[in-house]
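Team,

Forwarding the record for the chain on the shared tracking sheet. I've put the sequence and predicted structure together so nobody has to dig through attachments.
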Amino acid sequence: MSRIGTHRGISEIPSISMLMFAAAVLGTFLLIWSNQTLNFAAIDLTATFDNSVNRLSEDVLIEQVWFGTGSTKFVNTTLSNISSIGITITKIELVNSTDTHTITLSQDLFPDDVYSIEENYVWTSGEAVDVTVFTARENQFKTQAAP
């Protein structure tokens, strides 16, 4: 008697073994991918948290703003880092009723450091000047002075 439609295929044991192997490879790949994704997210979260805490910890004291004359009029600004972390001063802005004068710098201040800068500035006697100090972490510290 002849067999019609004989099936020649893979038996159950080898096919189950191949499916289990494929599932193990896929599972390993997904585990590695998710672990890397979680590590990157954790690193990003840590950096964001540290930056936020450091931003809150920054504190600059504008100790003195005084106006002088010599060959030209000038302003002298003295700053103190009264926080427990180092900061970078990026800009000092002087604003009066008619003008905005920007001093761009990159000055690092360690805790308890004092920094003084003298800049040519045409001021008017008795006119208030708003002084704003900007840091690299985007904090602003303000005071007002008058010559």
